[in-house]
Amino acid sequence: MEYVSIEKDFKLDVEKVLEYAVVAKDEKAIVAVLTEPIFLRSEREKIKSEIIRQAKTGLNAKDIKVTFSAVAYAKIAKGISYDEAEKMI
pTM to 2 decimals? Predict the structure, then answer.
C-alpha cells in the first residue's frame, strides 16, 4: 500500500484500500482512498466505517470525512490544504 499524507505517523490498514492520502486541520481530517473494485454498497460502507475508526484513533480527530474520489486523492497527495480538499467533497 502506498502511503501519501501530511500526517506521517498515521498508517491505514483496510482491506481493498490500495493507496490513501490524508489532510488534517484541528480535529478534522479528510481521508481520500483508492481501492480495488468494490461492487456492493454495503461493502463500501463497511470499508468507510473501518477507515473512520482507524483515522479517529490514529489521527486523534473527531470529524473524519472519507472520499473514494481519485481526483481528491491526487490533489491531497500533492499537498492541497484541508479547506481546499473540503470544497471538493
Answer: 0.88
- How far from the centroid of its chain's Cα atoms is residue 31's Cα? 2
Q: What is the pLDDT along the chain (89 residues), one digit of tens a residue?
A: 443 444 556 889 999 999 999 999 989 999 999 999 999 999 999 999 999 999 999 988 999 999 999 999 999 999 999 999 999 88
As a whole number of angstroms, the distance between CA 28 and CA 61 comes to 5
Q: What CA–CA distance (Å, rounded) separates 89 from 87?
A: 6
Euclidean distance between CA atoms 23 and 68, whole angstroms: 14
84 and 21 Cβ atoms separated by less than 8 Å: no
What gap in Å lies between CA 40 and CA 6, rounded to an integer? 31
The residues spanned by each domain of the chain are 2-88
Determine contact, residues 29/62, Cβ cutoff 8 Å: no
Q: Are 81 and 22 in contact (CB under 8 A)?
A: no
